[in-house]
Amino acid sequence: MPGVGTLLNMLIIVVGGLIGLTARNYLDRRLLETLMAAMSACILFIGFVGATKESLVFVDGQLVVTNIMMLVMTFIIGTVIGEILDLDKKLEQFGAWLKVKSKNEGEGGFIEGFLTASFTVCIGAMAIIGSIKDASGDPTILLAKAMMDGIVVMIMTTTLGKGCMYSAIPVGIVQGLVTLLAFFITPWLTEQALSNISFTGSIMIFLVGVNLLWDKRIRIANMLPTLIVAALWAWL
After folding, report:
1. Where are the beta strands (DSSP E) in 36-126?
2. Structural domain harbouring 225
3. Helices 87-101 and 68-85, interaxial angle, to 10°?
4. CB 116 within 8 A of CB 211
5. Contact 79, 56 (CB under 8 A)
6. pLDDT, tens digit, for every residue of 177-212?
7. I need a surface site. Which of 43, 86, 137, 222 has the fewest CB within 10 A?
8. Is residue 120 over pLDDT 90?
9. How many domains does the chain have?
């Protein structure tokens, strides 16, 4: 059934979050900090490997870097669009609204946890490809993604709190929309377009790790239009 992959993805994220919330009651602060550092390093690595996979190729036995111009131009254009729209502020406002509606006003890091987890589980070609496959009744890619998301959110929740498991909502919105629009967008998503999305998305995942590991405040949400610009770039 179309959409079942996204529904299971959302469910597993919530379950992972609940396990994380329970586990943090039995773990000391020092261990939680080390777990967060370890997860941050893993997110950095996932982003790095994803970007490397899409940018390094062997030509006549030599390693060649490709797509650099695409990366630079799409990030410039996409970030300018994102800053004009101020998507970061809008997502923060949505997180604040969720915090009130879910009666978690006393949860200090709710918005940070929500945003960080949302960026980690929503960005990437796997969500796009999996959602398109899900439209045809094949949820296997999203099920694999769901298991990874559940583990990531579980560990994040132990340190960043309840907000992380609410990342299931943007996952449902993004992947649900892609599934609904699969018939219209599939012809546009060429192999090169998906590669561009994966490349730019991996850079954003890397920046999520930077934010976590070095306590930075890079406005990743304002870079999200880069994913659309990167897909369109394949047609230039």
Report:
1. 56-59, 62-65
2. 4-233
3. 60
4. yes
5. no
6. 888 887 777 777 788 888 888 899 889 889 988 888
7. 137
8. no
9. 1
